[in-house]
Amino acid sequence: MFIDTHAHLTDDAFRADLDQVMERASASGVGAVIDVGDTLESSRAAAARARSHPRVFAAVGIHPNNASRADDGELRGIGKLAAEKGVVGIGETGLDFYRQHAVPERQEEFFRRSMAIAAQCGLPVIIHCRQAYRRLIAILKEQRGPGVGGVIHCFSGSAEDASALLDLGYSISVGGPLTYPGSRGLRETVGGISLDRVLIETDCPYLPPQGKRGERNEPANVVAVAEALAALKKISLEEIAAVTTANARRLFRGINV
Ligand code: NI
After folding, report:
1. What's the whole-model pTM score?
2. Which CATH architecture best describes the domain 2-251?
3. Distance from the CA of 8 to the center of ligand 1, in angstroms?
């Protein structure tokens, strides 16, 4: 069984055919999907879907690109949702210095407060980081503490970034970019990471694997990511499935399938 640890099922791209999408996921061996919110509204939708769908779990959070539009009330709303059944993580949250839809100070404020919610609820954080690894690592060093941890989703940092994050106790998640011909550096970095700290994801509807680029991505395609990881680590797909699923269950303790 595979777990897609990062999907955006609330995206409009899935409005028409989510049932079929979930059926294809099951048929491909994807036994659980974490539906990740990026606004209070999409987080509410993810939590509702987690209540109604036995194989969907939710993460709730405000994406750094939405930090300038969100207010304090929305963060309080995330804090409330965090206590709901089926919510297994806080995110996505983090820093995006590439797009900078919100000024860095605002992103950092939201990120710290999201980390505080996660620590309070005993949930892991799902971190988005783009061109902000140095700052991210500095903040995570400050925030170190019992029960604080999580995953860097769609990891795009350097080998040094990866090793600093692993030292801080965080896991690294890989998605479609691992399959791209141009991702040699990423493959080299991930090749050096101990497999017990690696998760797999799609980030669908974005970032489809090689061969499906230009199409809508969906949870069934997490198998292509697992295949790329198996080739990289030179072990069987079955072993990759077993280890990454165990890693996801260890981190997201609320996953009960
Ligand atoms: Ni995402």
Report:
1. 0.97
2. Alpha-Beta Barrel (3.20)
3. 7
| Dist. CA 73 → ligand 1 center (Å) | 22
Domain ranges of the chain: 2-251
Per-residue pLDDT tens digits of the chain, which is 257 residues long = 999 999 999 999 999 999 999 999 999 999 999 999 999 999 999 999 999 999 999 999 999 999 888 888 999 999 999 999 999 999 999 999 998 888 999 999 999 999 999 999 999 999 999 999 999 999 999 999 988 999 999 999 999 999 999 999 999 999 999 999 999 999 999 999 999 999 999 999 999 999 999 999 999 999 999 999 999 999 999 999 999 999 999 999 999 99
Tokens of 232: 């990289």
127 Cα to the center of ligand 1, angstroms: 9
Sheet holding 30-36, edge to edge: 2-7, 30-36, 56-60, 87-96, 125-130, 150-152, 171-174, 198-200
Per-residue tokens: 178: 């691992």
